[in-house]
Structure formats: C-alpha cells, structure tokens
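Late entry, evening session. Most of the bench is empty. Finally got around to the prediction I had been postponing all week. Sequence below, unchanged from the version circulated by S.P.
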Amino acid sequence: MTYLKVEIVTPDGLSYTCDDAKLVVVRTIDGELGIMPGHTPIIAPLAIDEVRVKKERETTEQDIIATNGGIMEVRDDVLSIIADSAEKSTDIDVPRAERAKLRAEARIEEAKKEQDIDRLRRAEVALSRAINRINVSKK
C-alpha cells in the first residue's frame, strides 16, 4: 500500500510530520487541491487556510493544521510545506487568537480612517490569520 509522507516546516523547525497519509487537502491561491499518493510533481503557493491530512479512507478522522500561507511541493510521494507558522487544531491558543482578531479589526478601522492602504492590507492579513486559527481550533 502506498502512502504520502507529509512534512510542514516553519522557521522554528519541523512543525508536523506524517508518514502514512492517504489524502491531503490544501488551499492554494488558485483553489482547493487534493493530493494522494502517486500525485504528479507540483509546486504551488498556499493561501492562509487549513491543511487536512487524512490517514485512512474509511474514517472521517483527520489531522487539521492551521497554516499562514506558504509554499507546497509534491514529489515522489512526499508533500512538503514551508510556512511562516503551522499549528495543529489541538495546539491553538484560542484566547490569544481571539485577541489577535480584535487587534486586527481595530487596526483595519484605523487604517481605513487614515486611508493607509499598506496598513490596511497588513491588518487584513493579520485578521485572516486569526480567523483561520479560530476556525481550525473548533475542528
């Protein structure tokens, strides 16, 4: 039986690894992509979203990891993701993520008042990251 090896690396080192994945679902900047063993080689930029790793086809159980974008490469049944950060749903500090969401929302309002496009974009990215972490923590 063929499996997919999954590795998620952040600046802090190896954040997640799995040697026996049957299906991995990621969201690229162009849309959702499912990766199974035997997938053709691909490199794609990832959106801020969750990575779902399923080990068995017959079960709904899966590992869910919040990633803040990054780059994904698939080659020779190895899926490697390089991301700024990655957290399993069980490791997310929800109160911290909720505080980050509130801070980002406040920064968005300030940037809109000041018409500062760069600050607005950075605050919107921070808000997306916080919301992603909150959503993944509930799964």
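Two things to note before I forget:
Residues 93-137 form a domain with the Single alpha-helices involved in coiled-coils or other helix-helix interfaces fold (CATH 1.20.5).
The CA atoms of residues 29 and 47 lie 5 Å apart.
Will write this up properly tomorrow.
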